[in-house]
Amino acid sequence: MFITDIRKEFYDVVTNQRVALLVAADIDAVCACKILQVLFHCDQVQYTLVPVAGWQDLSTAFLEHKEQFQYFVLLNCGANVDLLEMLQPDDDSVFFICDTHRPVDVVNVYNDSQIKLLIKQDDDLGVPSYDEIFRDDEEDGDSGNESDEGSEPSGKRRRFEEGAVERRIERQRAKREWEGRRREILFDYEQYEYHGTSAAMMLFELAWVLTKDTKDMLWWAVIGLTDQWVHDKITHMKYVTDVATMQRHVSRHNHRNEDEENSLSIDCMRISFEYDLRLTLYQHWSLYESICNSCYTSCHFKLWTLNGQKKLQEFLADMGLPLKQVRQKFHSMDMAIKGNLRDVIEESSNKYGMKDIRVQTFGVHFGFKNRFLASDMVHATAALLESTEKDDSASDNFLKALDSLSRGNLDRLHLGIDLAKKKLMAIQQTVASCICTNLIVSQGPFLYCYLMEGTPDVKLFSKPMALILLCKYLLKAFVHSTRNKRCKLLPLVMAAPKDVEKGSVIVVGIPPESETSDKKNFFGRAFEKAAESTSSRTLHDHFDTSSKIDLSSSNAALQTLRPSLRQTLGGGLLFISSAASVLEALSFCFVISCLNRFFVCCWRM
Amino acid sequence: MFCEKAIELIRELHRMSDGQLPAFNEDGLRQVLQEMEALYDQNQSDVNEAKAEGRSDLIASIKLRHCCLLRNQRCVTAYLYDRLLRIRALRWEYGSVLPANVRFHMCAEEVQWFSQYKKSLASFMRSLGGGEGLDITQDMKPPKSLYIEVRCLKDHGEFEIDDGTVILLKKNSQHFLPRWKCEQLIRQGVLEHVMS
Question: Which family does it belong to (chain B) (predicted)?
Answer without folding.
Answer: Belongs to the GINS1/PSF1 family.
